[in-house]
Amino acid sequence: MDRQQCVAWSLVHVIATGILISLSPMAFAEEPGWPEPVEDNPKAGMFLVDQFEYRDNEGADTLRWDTQGWYGTGFNKLWVKFEGDDETSSSAGELELQALYSRMIAPFWDLQVGLRHDRVYGPGLDQDRSFAVLGVQGLAPYRFEVEPALFVSNDGDVSARLVATYDLLFSQRLILQPRFETNIAANNAPAFGVGSGLNDVQLGVRLRYEFRREFAPYVGVSWKRQYGNTADMTRAEGGDIDNLAVVAGVRFWF
Predict the structure, then answer these.
(1) What is the pTM for the complete model shown?
(2) What keywords does the record list, in alphabetical order (predicted)?
């Protein structure tokens, strides 16, 4: 065996020995003083008050809030969503609370299932009902945030909702947010002023200034119009089927 062959065989021996050592259990043993492994699926949480605003309506003025929070990992979360309207001149209003479990089904998309409870209150009026909830929440192409959901009440009433928002950045701090919402029902629920078919369409636009990412006051306008059987029920009670409001409020999260 010549010198070149001896060198080649020596290199092969060294490489083979290194591979065997690296594959042995001792190669992966933790050395004293090594840092702890990094958790690649940590638990985290967030609570967002997307709307907390005063609405100067064509009728009675209202205080409006729309909040949601979650806690969990990137794949599994528990959600709470709470929204409502309260008339500033009387003890009348409506509340909606949702408790949901979500599972990530695609990047930026969560499947959500859970329960929803509604309450409508006022002079001589106090109604409650509950729903099962099935929906998704995520970021659509062109960065539209959408929340379609299907609801089935304890009385078997079926309804659906779609909410979509978009953030248009004039600068890193000045942001215009258009918002679209519509509700559809398969059944009449007169006690809650809901008729079958298209219930309503709501359009809004809010201009906010983020002093910090976590805190942003805003001003805007909001328009809502009822349709179909829902509008007929409102007319029969002497109410208005459309409303234009000037709004002012604050958006914050932590």
Answers:
(1) 0.82
(2) Signal
